[in-house]
Amino acid sequence: MPGMDRISELPESLLSQILSYIPTKESVQTSVLSKRWENVYLSVPGLDLNCSVIPNYNADEVILSFLSFIDKLLEFSPESSLFKVTVKCRGMLIDGFSDRIGTVIDRGTQQLDVVSSTDYYEDSFGHALPGVDFMPMNLYTSKTLVYLKLTSSGLGDPGFVFMPCLRFLHLEEIKWRVHLEKVLSGCPVLEELTLVRDLDDDDYARTDEEFRVMRVRSQSLKRFSVLPLREARDYHSRVECTLEIDAPGLEHMSLGDDQFDRIVVKKLPSLLVVELDIKFFVKVGVLFNTWDVSKSNEIREFLNGISSVRDMIISGMTVHAFEHYSKAGIIPKFNNLSRLQAVFHGKLLQFLPAFLECCPNLKHLILKVLHPEEMDEGLELADVPRCVSSTLECVEIQEKLELEEGKMKATSYFLGNSAMLKKLILSPTAYDPRNVAESEICEMVNKLTKRSTGCEIVIRAMEEVVVI
């Protein structure tokens, strides 16, 4: 009927569930709709607060309002569970914050996402010290947590850790007072771990060598990632840190930044996918010295540790590091590798055949060529590794369109040497379709020699995909 408020007639449990899908700030606003809605937001089985967006011209008032709201929420229905809690307080150190987090954990929280303060305060000598929100000790013995994400928080040593349901753990820029290995040892069903190292100076790590090693040791872990830093840094931590990975069940590993001075991996027999965007820096902007035996051994052991991988994704930065290492040592064979996605700078394209020699059973290659105009003059890709001549079935190439004779080096190389090739996908980049006719692209590709007569060529550059 016109004018009827049918939503308000729904059961309160259903209304609470609906409000759980919007931020707490917006769900609170529904309290002014009518008497019926006055307290519905207080029974929502979740909490999503971001006090960092509140103007802090009166910090004390903001803190008081923040704590009062949480207390009101917790007291309204003390027996109900808060299944999903997200609290962000970056830039505002709140006394009593940790106690409230401890209370929501006791309320049976399954998903907890906390962004702690990154504020600073002055000590009695006028020195700026970071204010750290250390998480409550009951966090380490939660029987309900399934997903835990902590950012800029402190983790103290509880003496005992047991989180029997935790499957997903994300730790970003943490101040450590407990070893990562100890935390992981108390998570028997952990499947996914994500890390971002805190590169700011940590006096605790500087004075205790034990905290200069982060050990990822887990029997249950399936996915492990080191994410890039939130903000680009032009400096490296003065505290050297080693990352050790010992996870025999690991299937997917992603290393997205050079945050560690040394990376050590054990054999990873279950590894299916590895993503690498690292350069094995010894310091920011400087490649390792090929005469540095210790660094070369580290890289060799790392490559041996991931040699069973089946799918590899590597950035141009990592390709550069591998090419540099090949001058000092031999890259091991990746006998199980069937799919490779790699970025090659034009200057390093001559390294492509040598690297593919390490992938004898490769079937699928996705290759992006950057700045082909910077290739060495007269570059010829003459060597033909086993995978190119015998096993490659699909090649996808992203290469700048150069219609002049002798250009499109990568495309002509694979078409001319791959006997088993079934499909070549060409995605020309950096060209203006207004100045290049579709017929010109087809004519250029048709001029290239094809060793595999049954190879299908797909050109994705045009308005409509063309198959030759």
Detail the poorly predicted runs.
none
Helix content: 10-25%
Sheet with most strands: strand arrangement = 1-2-3-6-8-10-12-14-16-17-18-19-20-21-22-23
Compute the average pLDDT.
81
Structural class, please? alpha/beta
The Rg value, from CA coordinates, equals 28 Å
Q: Specify the number of helices.
A: 12
C-alpha geometry: elongated
Number of strands: 23
The termini sit apart by: 61 Å
Give the oligomeric state: single chain
Q: Main β-sheet: number of strands, strand sense, barrel status?
A: 16 strands, mixed
Strand content: 15-25%
Short overview:
The chain has helices at 12-19, 24-29, 59-76, 97-106, 180-185, 203-207, 293-305, 316-325, 352-356, 386-390, 409-417, 438-447; strands at 46-50, 84-88, 111-115, 120-122, 128-130, 147-151, 154-155, 168-172, 175-176, 192-196, 213-217, 223-226, 242-246, 252-255, 262-265, 273-276, 311-314, 339-345, 364-370, 394-398, 423-426, 456-459, 466-467.
